[in-house]
Amino acid sequence: MAGTKQFDEDEVLNRAMLLFWRRGFGATSMQDIAQATGVLRGSLYHAYGDKQALFLKIYERYRAWFLDAVRAALAAPTAEQALARYLRFSIETLTSADGDDASRGCLTTKTATDETAMDEAIRTALRGLLDAVRRLLEERLAQPDAVERLALPPAAAARLIVTMTRGLVVMERVYGDAAGLQEIADDLLRVVLPACGQAKK
User: What pLDDT, in 10s, does the model give residues 38-96?
Assistant: First the structure.
């Protein structure tokens, strides 16, 4: 990026991320971002290029935050605690709001279902995050306390969990019922680790 930025980059990128997260890629314009951040549209173009380039930079920050949170959840001492914490984190993330009563949903799934966002560079970024989550889950499920109790091989169980958490996004969008999402998560945990019974919170 040429030149010196005349704004707080962390603040600008965080505000822009919340805007993409709440409204979606297609419904967010560079003018919207300019208004939300207080930075002139021309300055945004000069600093980051077009909207897609800015989104990809923001998504890298989102990816780093998300994966750090997943690692923290999966570091729990038992397999059921680790999965319960990961699922709870997933639900809390997609049901949270930032200043209004509407939940933000999931930035990854919202972008994946946006036809205007299906450029290959964006698809690659989305796949990268989902693949990284799947690998972290597989690594945790391959540990001795989990693998001997799994109903599926670690790789298949990890893939199922990632897929089901994407489905939770749709259910939240339709029903707006956080308690119902937790019931689904508890059922999933019992399917993956059938001997664990009710997950410990």
Answer: 999 999 999 999 999 999 999 999 999 999 999 999 999 999 999 999 999 999 998 87
Q: What is the pTM of this model?
A: 0.88
**41/47 Cα distance (integer angstroms):** 10
Burial tier of 131 (Cβ tally within 10 Å: 0-12, 13-18, 19+): exposed
| Residue-level pLDDT at 2 | 44
User: What DSSP designation does 117 have?
Assistant: G
Q: Where are the domains of the chain?
A: 55-192
CA distance 106 to 158: 19
Distance CA 84, CA 47 (A): 41
55-192 carries CATH number 1.10.357.10: yes
